[in-house]
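Consider the following input, taken from an annotated entry for ROK family protein (Phycicoccus flavus).
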Amino acid sequence: MSTGHPLGIDVGGSGIKGAPVDLDAGAFAQKRLRIETPAVSTPEAVCDVIAQIVDHFDEVRSDSPIGVTIPGVVQHGVVKTAANIDKSWIGCDIEKLLEDRLQHDVVVVNDADAAGVGELNYGAAAGHEGLVILTTLGTGIGTAIFNEGV
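Applying the prediction step yields:
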């Protein structure tokens, strides 16, 4: 098991942001780094930027997992929709592409789903029983719905 912090990376339409995350505190362990999203934001071009972010943080150990969020539907690491990002993402197994490139365990999820999980664990919804709905406004409009924590 890693003793380093996992790295969280968010892929947005104008910027790709990342930082090590302290999961006990639910906060960044270091200052966040932001790099502009490439003008042609193909999966490969975005992987190049993600690799720069990973290389920037000394705290990211080889056994530290990396979580990546994108503004699209993701199932088992494969992008299913790309309404607000380059269409070349559709059908891309971005999880495998990143794992091969970075030599880390990588999990890729929808950005609104990740925000919802964070809210359930660290935010206003922590300990809330019942229905929680989270809406994001960013590269697109996203939602996450949780009932009884699921």
